[in-house]
Amino acid sequence: MPNLRESVIGRASPRSAPRSVAGTAAALIAGVLAGMAFVGRLEASGHLVSQKGRAFQPNSLVVTRGDTITIVNDDSDLLHHIYIESDAFNFDSGDQVPGSRTPVTFEKNGTFLVLCGIHPKMKLIVRVN
Known about the structure:
Oligomer: single chain
Number of helices: 2
Number of strands: 9
Largest sheet: 5 strands, mixed
């Protein structure tokens, strides 16, 4: 007759397998939800600016030094091309195709004018504290 230790440790009971699969599935779901919450917090802590109808929305922002603004081309049929030229900070996105997301991190204090090289009437003012 096998001892109790062998029967508990040495063999998997038919009931332990479903609990193991269920436990693994629960752990995977918890991990995915935690990852989604983390990404959501990153998005919420950043700043989104839309490029739509040849305009920035919003057209002005106040951010803290080190913040990142993500500029999204929400026009379905227009290219954009953002740039910043100042003594303290320069940036050039290159062409932005519809749907693209361009992050810009502001490491210096000041007021910066963000322009579109394709649509000269588009202006975004970013004040960095």
